[in-house]
Design a protein that fits this description.
heterodimer; A: mainly alpha; Helix Hairpins; Monooxygenase; 2 domains; 7 helices; B: Substrate Binding Domain Of DNAk, Chain A, domain 1; 6-stranded mixed sheet; 5-stranded mixed sheet; 17 helices; disordered C terminus
Chain lengths: 176, 633
């Protein structure tokens, strides 16, 4: 089964970095209303299978476009650039130094006087640089500066990973 | 709009016929069956007017002696042959059972590393068989009520059930001869029963814009705890996150109290099954009495004493706290703050313990909804959904988008797990990942499918193992092996592995190692039909004939509608020939396997056409609507 639509076409929106998330959600729900396998619960097997595939595709498209990181990776993928691997390392030395410092800060959180406050300030910092990276990506993508855009995606990966770890640590601390 | 099934005017296959569908809540302690009558969901009672069916089956040497209330009466006298709470064993392995097996009085037999079987007077019995007996009994209730066969059922499962547990539940239904329309998460069913979709729409009408509602469903049953966070938006139920513990429930309250009793009496923990039952039943009734009274006087095994509500709280607070932690975790997964929850629903008999309601209200800062019987809510919601799925009611205003409760992954070098589909991803979903060989000339690759959140493969649940063979010899790293995971709307997984340079493929429908094999089910089915092998054959043939008819009709309608636009003359001709061949075989053959093969080959031949139609219909689904219309929904 091969579909010709790219993820943006599925939602009938332009291929661009900017995505109106509430519009995307409305269209997503509208499509699922039509193609979800539950709509075909009493249909034949072929049709059921098709519905599963279509709904899967719609889910994947939505999942990709609603996440800034995945959307950026996908935009590059459409330009035949594979930015989806975890292993890309940015060559920006200052950025890497900063990452090492952030990680050290994260591992010190447990021992700090107010770990939740420490986590919050760490998170605010990472979130604002994540947003900055997204703006950078947007500019680079619009200027077709894909080499730099690729590098920026690597940085975005660092940020999302760090945010995940912050969440995880917060969960562990709350469970204590 | 449908993908293939399009009834043109005058071609409509049959006049509308009302079908009989039920919702079944297959519970740890009790099970229920409900249906929709005159638009209202109602629980179907037995001849004595009892709504519940205790999830208990009693075995004697000749086989099943009774199911339900009657079976429960054998609890004390014949505990080893009175199987209760088997839902806890569904899809579990021997190792799982060792961790809580001491709480169940049964003797287990290891079944080749698969699901353990229970030793009974009737021989070895699998938890799936026990569940099938309960389902059969409930279906029987429904058939008496309808005076007709059942067309299908929605069966509920805890949202937290993993792949193996869902598959085991579906296998039990197959064994009971019930067509499963959908496995539905219990908390989602509860939200449907409360009509929160309607409430949300009404609210939307009063205000200028339809507002989203975020709902938490706290479901504490006998043996399982679930917390789900749903978002209701324009008639769509979206499960944002689910969590819980599939081995924590009101039974654990009973066990905690029973354990306290045992210590008071001064017995060691090596109780015989009868003593264990007696303590448990005393504990259970004490717990229930403490719902209304501040203390209860107890007399058990020559011991007398008093249990106060405070003391009970100290025994169960730890267990409730465990549920609170799971709630917080799910809120975090959903990205929702405690005060953003609009409604909280209490489900499950164990929420009758007032302490639970207090703690829940405290956590979410809102009084939980509990106007419907917490034991019946789930079955009622399932019945409403069954009514839609079976086609009696237009489902235009309701849709359930479920998420997968636990990540699915694959074992990689060094015994690690690489996640392919992450927890809380909306289903159905398909994801693929590429791997390569690590040795020169490697011609096979072992694929180990896992489910769980831990880093090490050995800490996750093993779902299936299979091998991709026939990879052409290449240098290490040259082969490209694409492993695809497809999860359907019931949360059931199938896995395909394909070597891309040579197109060698291997595929497996994941029958988790704890479930029953296809053959095992067929054997059991045949046993249960008492040598009615011919019946089975005839039934299989009928099913394939129906499928063939439907396929012919669907395809003809599709060609009629889109054939000109999407197919060239040659392609149209090919399809028509394939359809004609299928039609001829359908009339002439009595061999269901042959017909099934032909159906499969027509399906393959029409796949490209189907894909083009799907593509076209996605494009038109959103076209012709202004942005405004889409936003208004």
């Amino acid at each position: 089964m091969k579909l010709t639509s790219n993820f943006f076409e599925i939602f009938a929106i332009p291929v661009a970095w900017q995505v109106d998330s509430s519009q995307l959600q409305s269209k997503y729900l509208k499509l699922q209303q039509e193609f979800h396998p539950d709509r075909y619960a009493s249909s034949g097997d072929t049709e059921k299978r098709l519905a599963v595939q279509t709904a899967s595709l719609i889910n994947q498209a939505y999942d990709t476009l609603k996440s800034p990181l995945k959307r950026a990776q996908y935009l590059l993928e459409l330009k035949q650039i594979d930015a989806s691997q975890d292993s890309h390392i940015t060559s920006d030395g200052a950025f890497l130094m900063e990452q090492i410092e952030l990680r050290e800060a994260l591992s010190d959180v447990r021992d700090s006087a107010d770990p939740f406050a420490a986590l919050d300030s760490l998170r605010n910092g990472v979130e604002s640089s994540y947003i900055e990276q997204q703006n950078q990506f947007q500019a680079q993508y619009q200027e077709s500066d894909f080499d730099h855009a690729f590098n920026t995606v690597a940085k975005m990966q660092f940020s999302t990973k760090l945010l995940d770890e912050i969440e995880q640590l917060e969960a562990e601390l709350e469970d204590l | 709009m449908a993908l293939l099934q399009i009834s043109e005017p005058g071609q409509s296959p049959q006049p509308h016929q009302r079908r009989h569908a039920v919702g079944i809540d297959l519970g740890t302690t009790n099970s229920l069956v409900a249906t929709v009558r005159s638009g209202m969901a109602e629980v179907l009672a037995d001849e004595q007017g009892r709504d519940l069916l205790p999830s208990v089956v009693h075995y004697v040497a000749e086989g099943v002696s009774c199911v339900g209330y009657e079976a429960a009466e054998h609890n004390v006298a014949d505990p080893l042959n009175t199987l209760a709470s088997v839902k806890r064993l569904m899809g579990r392995g021997v190792a799982d059972i060792k961790t809580f097996g001491s709480q169940l009085p049964y003797e287990f037999a290891d079944d080749k590393g698969g699901m353990p079987k229970i030793k009974t007077a009737a021989g070895l019995v699998s938890p799936i068989q026990v569940s099938a007996e309960i389902l059969r009994k409930l279906a029987g209730r429904a058939e008496i009520a309808f005076d007709s066969e059942l067309d299908g059922a929605v069966i509920t499962v805890p949202a937290y059930f993993d792949e193996a547990q869902r598959q085991a539940t579906k296998d039990a239904a197959t064994l009971a001869g019930i067509k499963v329309l959908r496995l539905l998460n219990e908390p989602t069913a509860a939200a449907i029963a409360y009509g929160l979709d309607e409430a949300q729409k009404d609210g939307g009408a009063k205000e200028t814009k339809g507002q989203d509602r975020t709902v938490a469903i706290y479901d504490l049953g006998g043996g399982t705890f679930d917390i789900s966070i749903l978002r209701l938006s324009k008639g769509v139920f979206e499960v944002l996150a689910t969590g819980g513990d599939s081995a924590l429930g009101g039974d654990d309250f009973d066990h905690a109290i029973a354990d306290w009793l045992r210590q008071q009496i001064g017995m060691d923990d090596d109780l015989n099954p009868i003593e264990q039952r007696i303590l448990l039943e005393t504990a259970k009734s004490a717990k229930e009495e403490l719902t209304d009274s501040a203390e209860v006087a107890l007399e058990v095994l020559d011991w007398q004493g008093i249990l106060t509500r405070e003391l009970m709280h100290s025994l169960i607070d730890g267990l409730i706290a465990k549920t609170m932690r799971a709630c917080k975790k799910s809120l975090r997964d959903a990205g929702v703050a405690q005060d953003q929850i609009d409604d909280v629903i209490l489900v499950g008999g164990s929420t009758r313990t007032p302490r639970v309601g207090e703690k829940v209200a405290e956590l979410f800062g809102t009084q939980p909804l509990c106007s419907l019987d917490p034991d019946q809510v789930v079955a009622m919601g399932a019945a409403l959904q069954a009514e839609v799925l079976v086609g009696n009611k237009s489902g235009d205003d309701m849709l359930l988008l479920d998420v997968i409760p636990l990540s699915l992954g694959i074992e990689t070098m060094g015994g690690l797990i690489e996640k392919i589909i992450h927890r809380n991803t909306t289903i159905p979903v398909a994801k693929a990942q590429e791997f390569t060989t690590f040795k020169d000339g490697q011609t096979a690759m072992a694929i180990h499918v896992l489910q769980g959140e831990r880093e090490l493969a050995s800490d996750c649940r093993s779902l299936a193992r299979f091998e991709l063979r026939g990879i052409p010899p290449m240098v290490a790293g040259a082969a490209k092996i694409r492993v695809s995971y497809q999860v359907d709307a019931d949360g059931l997984l199938s896995v395909t592995a394909r070597e891309l340079t040579s197109n060698v493929e291997s595929r497996i429908e994941v029958k988790p190692s704890y479930g029953l094999g296809e053959e095992e089910i067929t054997n059991m089915l045949q046993d249960s039909f008492s040598h009615a092998r011919d019946d089975m054959q005839a039934r299989a043939l009928r099913e394939q004939q129906v499928e063939a008819d439907r396929m012919i009709e669907d395809l003809l309608a599709a060609i009629y509608k889109d054939g000109e636009a999407l197919l060239d003359a040659e392609e149209r001709q090919c399809l028509k020939v394939a359809i004609q061949e299928l039609r001829e075989l359908r009339e002439s053959t009595t061999e269901h396997r042959l017909l099934a093969r032909q159906i499969e080959s027509v399906a393959k031949a029409s796949e490209e056409f189907a894909a083009r139609r799907m593509d076209a219909s996605i494009k038109t689904a959103l076209a012709g609507q202004t942005l405004d219309e889409i936003e208004k929904g």
